[in-house]
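User: What would this chain look like folded?
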Amino acid sequence: MNTVRAMVAVVAAVAVAAAAGVAVAGAAGSAKAAPAAGIAPSPAAASEMVPFVIPATPNPKSLIAFPWTPIAADGPRVTVEDGHFMVGKSRVKIWGVNNTFGANVPSHAEAERMAARLAAAGVNSVRFHHMDTSTYPNGIVDPRSPLKIAPEALERMDYLIDQFARHGIYANLNLHVGRTASRALGLPASGTDYDKMVGIFTPALIDAQKEYARDLLGRVNPYRKVRYADDPAVAFVEITNEDSLFMWGSRRSLEALPDFYAKILRGKYAAWLKARYGTTDALRQAWAKGSEPLGRSLLAPDRFPAASDAAATGWRLELHDPCIANLAPQAGAVRVEITRADETTWHIQLKQAPLALKGGQYYTVSFRARADGPRRIQYAVGQEHDPWANLGLSGEAALDKNWKTVRAGFVASSSDTAARLSFSVGGSAVAVELADVVLAPGGQTGLGPGESIEASSVALFAPSEVAARAADRGRFLAETEKTYFDGMRTFLRKDLGVKGLVTGTIVFGPSGLYGQSGMDFVDGHAYWRHPNFPGRPWDMANWTVEQDAMVDRPQGSTFLDLSAQRFEGKPYTVSEYNHPAPNDHQAECVPMLAAWAAAQDWDGVWLFDYWESQRDMDPDRIGGFFDMAANPAKWGFMRAGAAIFRQGAIPPHARTTTLNLTTTDDCVGDLAALQARYDLGMFSAVRSRMPMTWETLLGTGLEVSFAGHSGATDRGGGASPKMLWKMDSRGRGVFSASGPGGQVAVVHGQGAYGVISVPGVKSETGGKGPSNSDGPLIVDLLSPDFAAVTVTALDGRPLEKSEAILVAACGRAENTDMKFSTDRRTVGRNWGRGPVLIEAVEGTLRLPRGAWKCAALAPDGTPQGDVLVKVEGTGDAILALSPRHKTMWYLVTPAEKP
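Assistant: Here's the prediction, encoded as structure tokens.
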């Protein structure tokens, strides 16, 4: 997190050498006025921000509109060939957005405007998302019959899909996002949001999803005279959104399943075990290996002491301001009475340290606990010293007034003589009592008493499992998930005759990728600094978005795990991505994503999200975290992103590295082992098999395989992109990517003069910034201290031969009168009013050699004034970017010859 800046760097420079790299310099800035109590001023003065409202109705005279070709109802469709999307003999890349809720069923007039605006920005696909979450008109569910689709909604969708097709925009239909069929069917509550996970193995829910798919995809669109299932414009079908037996919090959810669903899953597990082992005796023998009796507890004493003895025995209550709590000994227990708690659970901890753990040893933690009312506590084993790392156990227990026994096992990740067992009981003022706490080596068990295959009584999760038992569960869940997704794809293909391409859900770790390996394409999602809700989920009065630039965090960027999810031989897409507002650095989102996706040779991107039904169709302000439509820091780069990714202005890496994730003939077991160790961390799983860092991906594409080969494959012919991601001594980053038809630079510079040196480029320091004598510098940025700049040929040609070059440049974007907190991490409900403002860029752009002219463009893409292009004695043309032009768009075209 960055605190609000009291000093603003007014000079920062990025220089992108045409053929060799980037150099960056910064200069000290001037002090700003002190912020009012509790409210932060903008990092730039109000005079440095200019209105830039991109109209919802596109101007037909726009000079930067993307050309499109209609999609005929009887024309060629999107297919897969050699691992990529194709239409006929030509490759097609998807540059898309998401529509949510009622935006999928707009009025006819709104549909026409939406289709025209999207097409003009270069969008060629829309993902129909969350259309099944609400009843019409905020969704497509029939309010009279929740298992059916409202006829009025279908008619509006018919027209919208037709308008999209007329503008060359493919539909991506999501079959399950927010529908809760269990409620409509009269089944017990599933205990999961939107029937996630249970819908993968519950027959009644699978049947309901098939019936919904039949109703939707079997419909004949009267405007196109063809079934959705047959329409080339319905190019993609997604079975279920963010839904997996390995998804976030899946273990906790599966352990807490209501009896109705738990019985179904246990029955499937028993059938799977019978097929694998035959009898309970054979299963008992297989799981006996590795069992170890529970040893002596490392804690002292076995029972909690009186308060006066607590320090002597190692138990201690740790408090962080402003929390107030105390220990009240009970008979054989201890009570943590809490007078004041904040929202951070670890600000009140009961812990014992130091404890000596041996790396690789299995340990068991058990305890009894209760609370005065419903609440949760966390427990963990970790280091009692810097860097305070976890040592293998992190769990959570839901408590109420009744005593509950909790038991958990773990393998110590490393040896440590100063470890701790801690209970985090903050975040609530409800008192907690603990008793009979044990931390001891051993305790692993195989098949428990009373468990048998024949009685379907083998628990899916046991407190302290031998490795063989945990491995079998991993195999079972992976195979169960793959059976569901493969079965749904077969139903769509064979029973419904769907001709569009089918994917299942996003990748959730190595086992999740196994479940998606039979789909037509593989998909992923990622968000940089997703909003955090410390209290109630999605409480719009209580949230934070960290003020953190991804350009400063290459080692933790979203791109690493996304890149490691690409599967050999399959197209790869990212159907949700965003850097949420009001992050000051959100302008990095679209340029960096477009450049990275292009270099990694991905096949599709859908940014999240474009429109919701609650929004005004003529917005002049940013409407929320993910708003694309009215946010110039994002929508203002969409046309450039289309050139970079869709048109190939930046080419893919010439080399692709393929990594086989499996090492034995037991493919599912190998993946389950990786899942158990790395969970959803796909890049960590890749690194465990092959030495690789984030820097590696600047020079190679990445894909993974199962039971395949590992190695590098060179793409014949074309040039590679030139990519750089580098940090200065102050931890500020610069990212650049360039290709024949486009360039991207994202810079975060701050502090005194200093230069990031790049191999092959000489640069000077000493207060003068980058030296222009070192080579043809493309961009020198003077202000602001953070900015994203793209230079793209709109006609698909190399920059030096282009007839139309779009320069897009932007720092921050925010609404008028947004009320930031002092640390700029939240505005609560105070999102401000229109017009939306941008931090316009000041600097110079060195164009390819030749005679050029430039026009500053209005937000509708029409000229609003000429911009001087100066020709130096060397013949280089210099374009001056300036806030006085009140724009983020400049159009450069060849000058008329005298």
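The two ends are 55 Å apart (CA to CA). If you want, I can go into more detail on any region.
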